[in-house]
Design brief:
Length: 87
């Protein structure tokens, strides 16, 4: 009975695609200028949320200023053009 309940709960979590993100800043950012660089991926919503979680952690740690950088290169993974044959 207990095992069935655990399996059902796991299936419900999998169905909802719950992902938990945690941030731990390794050194003090109090009074410092912080630059957060986050690369973009296919899942833009998750990428932006990860950056916002990190910005919030820096803000609650009393960073003087926080600058977010999100380089987005939508064409960077396309195939390279073929080189032309010499004429």
């Amino acid at each position: 009975m207990w095992l069935q309940q655990q399996q059902q709960q796991q299936q419900q979590r999998d169905a909802l695609h719950i992902s938990l993100n945690a941030v731990q800043i390794q050194e003090s950012v109090r009074g410092k200028d912080v630059f957060v660089i986050q690369t973009m991926s296919k899942d833009v919503n998750t990428t932006i949320m990860e950056m916002l979680i990190l910005v919030y952690a820096c803000r609650t740690s009393c960073a003087r200023s926080i600058t977010g950088v999100l380089p987005y290169f939508p064409y960077s993974k396309q195939c390279k053009m073929r080189k032309r044959a010499p004429s």
